[in-house]
Write a structure and sequence with these properties.
It is a single chain. Helix content is about 55%, strand content about 20%. With about 325 residues, the chain is an alpha+beta fold. The strands form two sheets. Strands 4-5-6-7-8-10-9 form a seven-stranded mixed sheet. InterPro entries: Acyl_CoA_acyltransferase, GNAT_dom, HTH_MarR-typ, NAT_camello-type, Tscrpt_reg_MarR-type_CS, WH-like_DNA-bd_sf, WH_DNA-bd_sf. Pfam families: Acetyltransf_1, MarR_2.
């Protein structure tokens, strides 16, 4: 069993690349049947577009054939080097070059058109030999990837798998070191640790739990990698604070899981409002809070933290 048979869909891209290489190599033999001048298969989309619609700009050609501007520019240079196209400044816009066929290119065009007709007929026969129409399958695949790219599809699978490996835990005294470590890590990266931080991080039982608050932690692969706290402000309001995710575990959706769990916990505790303080410098955190439903507010009390420049709230309703 070869690698492609063994791994199947896991190496779909490599399998398609191998098929593309096979067909490209065999296409060189096809061009040799028709052209006396050297002609590379990769030139075809550009040459055909220029022949069919002379006077286009490089950007126009790139858009029509679905290739990058840089790739089309390189092919145009190769075609110009072989005196098949000419590159001239446009009359309407001197800053942009237009591409047209040279006399040599124009002589080649009828032969290429005949080649296209012959190849079309040969490929139709080739497709007829297969149980599944590859052309239709490619169109379906292109449409599916335009709806959701491969990276997003793999991320969804990974996130679903990781979600099953993440455990949310209630605070226990043995986790105090992790609770402090995770928060000190991000605070020192962007700001400075303040006295108010150390009170809560060094003495979470006294400053958070005994006052009616809660602390949640996230465990992944045997390590505590995330934490957040609910600080009771009054009978109706809790503050979401001390949210932290280890850099080694970021991008796994742990912050959202913790935030959602904290919201559910606050609602179960009878809270009608959640409040938080942050800094707009922390763009990923601010985006997370918006995703959780928080909105900016100016109704909060002055913050004890010098780093705070934004206050947000989430109204909890049944």
């Amino acid at each position: 069993m070869n690698l492609f048979d063994e791994l199947g869909p896991a190496v779909l891209g490599s399998r398609l690349r191998r098929l593309s290489e096979v067909m490209t190599n065999q296409a060189s033999d096809v061009y040799a049947l028709y052209q006396e001048v050297p002609f590379e298969p990769r030139w075809f989309p550009v040459f055909y577009t220029v022949a069919a619609q002379p006077g286009l700009h490089v950007g126009d050609i790139a858009e029509r054939i679905g290739q990058t501007h840089a790739a089309v520019s390189q092919v145009v240079k190769d075609l110009a080097k072989h005196e098949l196209v000419s590159v001239q400044r446009g009359e309407a816009d001197q800053r942009r070059s237009v591409i047209t066929l040279t006399d040599e290119g124009a002589k080649l065009w009828p032969t290429l058109q005949q080649q296209i007709a012959d190849v079309r007929q040969a490929n139709e026969a080739l497709l007829a030999e297969t149980r599944h129409n590859l052309l239709l399958a490619i169109e379906e695949m292109e449409y599916a990837l335009s709806r959701q790219n491969l990276g997003a599809r793999v991320k969804a699978v990974r996130d679903a798998r990781v979600a099953g490996e993440i455990r949310l835990l209630d605070y226990q005294p043995q986790y105090q070191v992790d609770f402090k470590r995770l928060n000190i890590e991000w605070i020192e990266q962007y700001f400075r640790v303040e006295e108010a931080d150390l009170k809560a991080l060094d003495h979470p039982n006294e400053y958070i739990l005994q006052r009616g608050g809660r602390i949640l932690l996230a465990e992944y692969q045997g390590q505590i990698v995330g934490a957040c706290a609910l600080l009771k402000m009054d009978d109706d309001t809790y503050e979401l604070a001390k949210m932290a995710v280890s850099p080694t575990a970021q991008g796994l959706g742990i912050g959202f899981r913790l935030g959602q769990a904290a919201i559910d916990k606050a609602r179960n505790l009878g809270a009608r409002r959640l409040y938080l303080e942050s800094n707009t410098k922390l763009t990923p955190a601010i985006n997370l809070y918006h995703k959780l439903g928080f909105e900016k507010t100016v109704a909060g009390q002055p913050s004890p933290y010098e780093r705070c420049n934004i206050q947000m709230e989430l109204l909890l309703t049944d």
